[in-house]
Design a protein that fits this description.
With 383 residues, this protein is α+β, with helices and mostly antiparallel strands. The chain has four domains: 1-100; 102-231, 2-Layer Sandwich (Dna Ligase, domain 1); 246-345, no CATH class; 357-383. The chain has eleven helices and eleven strands. It has helices at residues 3-23, 27-51, 61-88, 130-148, 190-210, 246-249, 264-273, 294-297, 302-306, 347-355, 375-382, and strands at 104-108, 116-124, 154-165, 172-178, 182-184, 217-230, 254-255, 315-322, 336-344, 363-364, 371-372. Strands 1, 2, 3, 4, 5 and 6 form a six-stranded antiparallel β-sheet that branches. The chain has a three-stranded antiparallel β-sheet with strand order 7-9-8. It has a two-stranded antiparallel ribbon with strand order 10-11. The radius of gyration is 27 Å and the shape is elongated.
C-alpha cells in the first residue's frame, strides 16, 4: 500500500463515516457504527506510525492527521448518541428533548510530526454558536497546556473545523480556520493568551469568511484541533527567555527582549544602551546585535567601570528552576537553575506601589534602593 493510497483511503473512510452518522437510527446501528469507526481509527493510527520519519514525499501528513481527527470526532459523536439513546430506550426520537450536560470531549490524536508533544481535538457535541464553543473549550485547552508547560516552553496553534452549507443548492463543505503558533511558558496567563490568540483570531477569520459573500452559511462547528509542540529556538541549545509575570508586565516598567538564545543578559544591556525607536521594544530586531556594539556592551573590569562615568543599568533577574531530565540538550542534562535578564527602564514605576500606597511617583536611589518622596530629597542623598 503506497503512502498516497493511505491518504486517499483515509479521505474515503471519513466521507463514508460522515454519511453513516447521518443515517443511524437505532441503538444497534449506532453500536455497529462505533465498532466500525474504532477499527478504522486503529487502521489509520497504524498507518501514521509507519510513515513517521519515512522519506516518502507523496504523503500529505496534514491531510492524514486531519482525517484522523475527523474520525475521532465522529466516534465521539456516535458515543454521545449512544449514551443519549440508552436514556430514551432504543431510539433517537426524543434525543433532542433530553438535557445534554456534556457538550465537549477531548480525544488525543497520533501525530505525523516528530517533536509534537501532544495533538488532540476538542469535539463539539451539541453547541451551535462558535464563540460559545470556543469559550467552553478553554478548560480542556488549559488542562492540557498546564501539564506540558511544566516540562518546557511550548509553541501552540489550533485549527477550528466547521461545516458550511450553501442554502441555494444544499451543498455542504468543511472549512478550516487556523491560528499561528504562539509561545507559552510557565508564566503565560493562559486565559489572556487563549482569548487573544484563539478566540479573537478565529472570530475574526469567521467574520472575514462570512463577509466575502461566498454564499456559504455556517451549519455546525465540528471540533477544535490543538497542536502542542516543544519550543526549541536553537537546535541543540536552549533559550532562557520567559515572559514577565502579569503583575510586572502591567506596570510597563521593564523591557523584556524576546531572545531565542542564551544571551539575554547582553540583550538586556543593549536594550538599555540603544533604546528601541519603534513600538516593539520586545523584539530582538529592534536593536543592533551585541557583537556589533561589544565595546560598549561587554562587561568592563571594575576599574574601567569606575572610570567610565557610565549611567547605571538596572536589570531584573528571573530564576527558572529546571528539572527536565528527559531533555536531550546538554544544557538541560541535569537539574539546574537558569536565569533570565530584562532591563528595568522605570524603577519608580516598578517599585513605587510596593513602597507607598499614595500612588504618587517615588524617587529611588539606584545605588542603595532607598526611596524618597521627591527628586530634591534624592539629590541631597546623592551628594
Amino acid at each position: 500500500m503506497s503512502s498516497e493510497t493511505i491518504t486517499s483511503l483515509s479521505s474515503t473512510i471519513v466521507k463514508t463515516t460522515e454519511e453513516a452518522v447521518k443515517l443511524v437510527k437505532t441503538k444497534e446501528e449506532i453500536i455497529n457504527q462505533v465498532n466500525l469507526v474504532k477499527g478504522n481509527v486503529k487502521l489509520l493510527e497504524t498507518a501514521i506510525k509507519s510513515i513517521i520519519g519515512s522519506q516518502e514525499q507523496t504523503e500529505n501528513p496534514f491531510r492524514l492527521e486531519g482525517n484522523l481527527a475527523l474520525l475521532k470526532y465522529y466516534l465521539a459523536k456516535l458515543q454521545y448518541l449512544l449514551h443519549a439513546s440508552s436514556k430514551v430506550g432504543g431510539g433517537l426520537d426524543n434525543t433532542e428533548k433530553k438535557q445534554r450536560s456534556r457538550h465537549l470531549v477531548w480525544h488525543s490524536i497520533n501525530s505525523c510530526f516528530k517533536g509534537r508533544v501532544c495533538t488532540g481535538l476538542i469535539a463539539n457535541l451539541s453547541i451551535k454558536d462558535p464563540l460559545c464553543f470556543l469559550n467552553k473549550a478553554f478548560n480542556n485547552f488549559q488542562r492540557k497546556i498546564k501539564i506540558h508547560r511544566q516540562k518546557s516552553m511550548l509553541k501552540v496553534n489550533v485549527v477550528l473545523v466547521c461545516n458550511f452549507i450553501k442554502p441555494q443548492s444544499g451543498d455542504i463543505d468543511k472549512k478550516t480556520f487556523a491560528t499561528k503558533n504562539h509561545t507559552i511558558d510557565i508564566n503565560t496567563n493562559l486565559k489572556t493568551c487563549y482569548r487573544d490568540n484563539v478566540i479573537h483570531t478565529l472570530a475574526n477569520k469567521l467574520e472575514e469568511f462570512s463577509e466575502k459573500d461566498s454564499g456559504w452559511a455556517l451549519l455546525e462547528v465540528l471540533h477544535l484541533k490543538v497542536n502542542i509542540n516543544n519550543f526549541s529556538p536553537l537546535k541543540g541549545g536552549t533559550s532562557t527567555y520567559v515572559s514577565l509575570p502579569d503583575f510586572i508586565s502591567r506596570k510597563r516598567a521593564v523591557i523584556n527582549v524576546k531572545n531565542n538564545d542564551s544571551f539575554c543578559f547582553l540583550l538586556a544591556v543593549v536594550s538599555a544602551l540603544y533604546p528601541a525607536e519603534n513600538k516593539h521594544p520586545e523584539r530582538i530586531t529592534s536593536y543592533p546585535h551585541f557583537k556589533d556594539k561589544k565595546k560598549n556592551v561587554l562587561p568592563l573590569s571594575l576599574s574601567e567601570y569606575r572610570n567610565s562615568n557610565r549611567e547605571p543599568i538596572n536589570l531584573l533577574v528571573l530564576s527558572i528552576e529546571n528539572s527536565n531530565n528527559n531533555n536531550s540538550s546538554p544544557e538541560f542534562s541535569k537539574e539546574r537553575t537558569l536565569f533570565h535578564f530584562a532591563w528595568i527602564k522605570k524603577m519608580s514605576a516598578l517599585l513605587s506601589k510596593q513602597l507607598s500606597s499614595h500612588g504618587h511617583k517615588t524617587s529611588i536611589c539606584y545605588r542603595c534602593l532607598n526611596h524618597f518622596s521627591s527628586d530634591g530629597l534624592l539629590k541631597n542623598h546623592l551628594i
